[in-house]
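Tokens for ComEC/Rec2 family competence protein. Go.
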Amino acid sequence: MSGAPVVARDTAAHPTAVDARLALPAGVGWLAAVLLVALPQAALATSVIALAAALSSVLVVRRAARRPRVPGLVRALLPSVVAVGVVAAAIALAAPARIPPLLADLGEEGGSAVGVVALEATVAPGAEGGADATLLVLEDRGTGEELGMRVPVRLLQVPAEERLALGTRLDARWRVLPTEAGDDRAALLAPMGAVTVGGAAPPLLSAADDLRARFLDVAGVFRGDGAALLPGLAIGDTSAVSDELDDAMKASSLSHLTAVSGANCAIVVGLVMGAGALAGWPRPVRIGVALAALGGFVLLVTPEPSVVRAAVMAAVVLVALAGGRPGRGLPVLGAAVLGILVLDPWTSREYGFVLSVLATAALLLLAGPLAERLGRVMPAPLALAIAVPLAAQIACQPVLVLLEPSIPLAGVAANILAAPAAPVATIVGMLACLLAPVAPPFALGAAGIAWLPASWIGGIARVAAELPGAQLPWPEGGAGAVLLAVVIAGLLGAAGVPPVLGRRGRRRALAATSGLLAVTAGLTVGTATLQGFGRPSDWTIAQCDIGQGDAVLVRSAGEIALIDTGAEPELLDACLRTLGIDRLDLLVLTHFDHDHVGAVDVVVGRVDEVIAGPLADERDAEILDALAAGGAVVRPVAAGEQGMLGAQSWRVLWPPDHRGIEPGNDASLVLEWRAAGECSVACAPSMLALGDLGQEAQRGLLAAVRIRAVSVVKVSHHGSADQEPELYRAAAATLGLIGVGEGNTYGHPAPEALDAVTAAGGTPVRSDAHGLVLIAPEPGRPDVWRVWTERGELDRGG
């Protein structure tokens, strides 16, 4: 045979070679899992077809082996076909038990049943929000039989008066709400009535939780950002981190330091491997002890699914690096990915899983070439210190842009500055945690040492987050992620990582990518700037886009009121910052459900006066106490009370103080807002804010007071179906504001609510469809109001 000689490369002789044989099967199996968990009914057929195709391919290859030419494409695709078949079979086997018929029926009708759940995470006393759990027992309402199961669920609320360790069993009557197809949680559970502890956590988990609690007490002796961050850096406990500090950590790309990730696990493994090397242990012994230490670390920081996945990814790096061939870690990573997907295919859609895999792959494949390239212009240790966080951020950023459509320009620099401090805080912090129960004075000393680097990290986060241009806006959604991936690939190619392009090719790649980046950034920043220019500065009513919840602002004559806060602190804070609001003259808390008061910490210390509806329990009172401690004058109100906000008057229409109405939705404060005296541009349109009143309470309101026509109605209960159309006809509002989360599982806004608004002559304005909404006066026309929406258009003019 003529031509150039064929060189057969032995990958064993080339340590730097990358073995990607399992990368394609892992990727194809992953894609199959992403698609099939949303269509589990198709999983069995897919598995049969894929495995039959794989068997046929084996027969074809075996027959072709007797011939001179072997179908290489069939051989190359065979592992991928097998991966699809195995993953599909796992989904087909797991799907029936994942959503038992009883649970599915309750979800469809929004029914409730008595059940037992086991927590998958530790819940601190007074913690807001919910927690992941496993549903173990559910009672059949028809027969009274208790059915055993193991179903992953999300508890919407966990009222904890004491610390509840992972594994604690809770008994309650739970309302069952469905989740979207493919969600990693099979259902949402909302407690109805009292929640009781039905069983303590297993002894090993309970002992680990007691150790963590003692460490939190030790860290609590110190003050400042360092004290808040130390438990997160050491053991992944972020309960002491304030919303403000959390925002700064996210904006500076440092939040991964306080989450138990592969990096934390790698630190533990590296310590053991280093100590073993100094002691002269054989490599197999070092690896075995390191894996055992990794298991103990997972138990210490709580073996939540995300932590277990991080440990698996760290083990992949350990096995690869222990062999001295990072490039050979890719097959191990592929095998780990396939193993996790077979054990729990629904993991495939979790962002945490995606980021763990990408970060691990980046450390295996990208960190080395980046360090080598950077080492040409700087010292090798510095090049490696830059290459590691840069590789991880490069790999993860296209996924992160799906969560937050912006690029943290200061993130790499912040990670480089924080890199020397993070291991010290983690290692010494873990030592303090281990010493806490046996030697408290030494634990306090170690915690003091770890507090210093933790404070350094907190300072870096705050400075980086406040830098001008720290966040570069970027197109959102899948298109933005793909675009960013193309830009990153172009920049890596231009930098010669990997060195596959010649000098001319690198120059062309740099020119093309720079042009694409400039155009994208220009359009994005320009659009944001133009949008800011178009936003009316003289708005008088604003509906914030804070997800599933209410947060409506009223502004008159320089004074500002906020009606409820929503549940997401970062979303409320973003809305207030967008509108330039630093302080509130009045805060109205219509009632104390989490989706109305969950973000109240954002405004603590920034409010002059608070009016609130009836209190249900001590936790409601604690919210008002925190506001009062921040300097606010707090007072409960009922029907008939009134006051002023600038040139606007407000009057409470509901609830009456002489009736025994239970606190909750039907006891929501209902306020009527109207211009006082002569209307001017400082006036806001009249508004009826209905809180979360249900139909029966709305009928009670109609019977109790005369409802006058208004310009705007804040639709009750996020547009639920439980509405009284007659009330909306009486209000005759031109606009109906609906605070609702995109893709919520409640079906809000319901057709009944939309019909009630439109039948009364109004136009629904939804935060899920329209984002931030501003209502402003039309110059020279005091009875006409302009409506500005962040996105989308109104169906009818308002």
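The CA atoms of residues 108 and 520 lie 44 Å apart.
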